[in-house]
Design brief:
Low-confidence stretches: none
Number of strands: 14
Helix content: 40-55%
Distance between the termini: 36 Å
Largest sheet: 5 strands, mixed
Strand order of the largest sheet: 5-4-3-6-9
Order of helices and strands: HHHEEEEEHEEEHEHEEEHHHHEHHEH
């Protein structure tokens, strides 16, 4: 054999080995993702779901147990013969800390890979467009660790959900630009400060991820989730079974379509945005304006400055006309805006999330009525409109899904 032939043969062997390694790595990631999404599985179930052989799955499971990714948890029920062993992601170690940061407060939770909450705490931390907010985020991380008693060495990553135009690829929040240090994204700064991988996701996209994996959108291919919160309105989009983020991660900014040419000035600088009519903050502002003008309401029983969404919903449940009317107005405007999205995406379902979702049928009924009024008949015939059953947990679980997915991508 010539030297050239030998070199060619060696290169072919290396190529084949590298292809085998790549396939094995992909299969390992798929197995871990399957266990994360589906929960406890047997070898037979994993073989079917991963479209591979029993020996391949068996070898991978042994390797992953040696690496403490996976653990045996007992046996599954069987009609005949030997009961098969059940496998699960390891419940100890490899925890994730999630920071759910909003303009009206924040929460922190620590979860394991089985989506079990190990620790949860409310934080006195509201999102600010200020570089000093990064230090507060870092302080919150250390505070949560100290309160939980969990070691930083047991964490595999930190996930942050927050409002704004967020590019998950580079870690920048373009709505809160002052959060990003000079020539550095907030993610880069936090990773250096905390010595852990940090992943950031828009709160609405986190919500639709949670709904799609664990909530009302589970098993659906085309779904919209409208996040009606304090700061504004966001649209989570699932297309063909995958969350749609857009070229820069900005997809779903429904709140900044213009719906009223002579409307109020939005913080974005435009006039008459949907946000100015349908956000929780706009509801409170309009209620206070009506009360100042002398409109009668059960809400006057409360301290004027302390009126919040819970009080408004309570008043509506007690038959207060002002609360009911303004919730109806918000739902109607939201439905008009959503009718545009329905025509664009032709969804199977719309799920209502956010703080205003707590109003239940007071908000969902007018949304549904407006969609029926403004949409073509064929678009609305099979459309389901529901209030989320997960509530704020959709956002937290969705952030965890996103973080775990990013972590598993790096498993070799």
């Amino acid at each position: 054999m010539s030297l050239t032939s030998k070199n060619t043969s060696d290169a072919e062997v290396l190529d084949k080995e590298s292809i085998v390694d790549i396939k094995k790595s992909r299969l390992k990631k798929s197995l871990l993702q399957d266990l994360y999404v589906r929960g406890n599985r047997t070898i037979a179930q994993l073989t079917r779901e991963l479209h591979t052989s029993v020996p391949s799955v068996t070898v991978l499971l042994e390797e992953l147990m040696d690496e403490h990714w996976i653990v045996e948890i007992g046996t599954a029920d069987a009609q005949f013969g030997r009961k098969p062993i059940l496998y699960s992601l390891h419940p100890k170690g490899r925890y994730t800390m999630l920071l759910d940061v909003t303009t009206y407060g924040s929460k922190a939770i620590i979860l394991n890979l089985q989506n079990q909450i190990l620790f949860k705490i409310d934080l006195h931390l509201s999102l600010e467009d200020n570089i000093s907010h990064l230090a507060k985020l870092a302080e919150s991380f250390h505070y949560v660790l100290a309160e939980s008693g969990i070691s930083a060495s047991d964490l595999i990553a930190i996930g942050i959900s927050m409002p704004g135009l967020i590019n998950p690829k580079n870690g920048f929040n373009y709505s809160y630009r002052k959060l990003n240090p000079d020539k550095q994204s907030l993610v880069e700064w936090l990773e250096k400060e905390l010595d852990l991988p940090v992943y950031i996701i828009n709160d609405t996209q986190a919500t639709i991820l949670g709904e799609h994996q664990f909530g009302l959108a589970k098993g659906m291919e085309n779904v919209l989730s409208v996040n009606m919160d304090w700061g504004g309105v966001g649209l989570g989009i699932v297309l063909n079974g995958k969350v749609f983020q857009g070229a820069s991660g900005f997809a779903g900014e429904l709140g900044h379509i213009q719906v009223k040419e002579d409307g109020e000035l939005c913080y974005c600088g435009k006039v008459g945005c949907l946000d100015t009519l349908t956000s929780a903050s706009s509801l409170i502002r309009r209620i206070k304006e009506r009360i100042r003008l002398g409109q009668v309401s059960k809400l006057t029983e409360n301290n004027f400055e302390e009126i919040d969404i819970e009080m408004v919903i309570d008043a509506a449940n007690r038959g207060d006309a002002l609360a009911i009317d303004l919730l109806h107005d918000i739902g109607k405007e939201m439905g008009k805006g959503l009718s545009i999205a329905v025509h664009l995406f032709n969804p199977e379902a719309i799920i209502i999330n956010g703080v205003l979702a707590k109003a239940g049928r007071f908000i969902s009924n007018p949304i549904e009525q407006a969609i029926y009024k403004y949409c073509l008949a064929d678009f609305k015939n099979d459309l389901i409109i529901n209030v989320s059953q997960l509530g704020e947990n959709a956002r937290l679980l969705g952030t965890h899904v996103y973080v775990v997915d990013q972590v598993l991508e790096k498993v070799s």
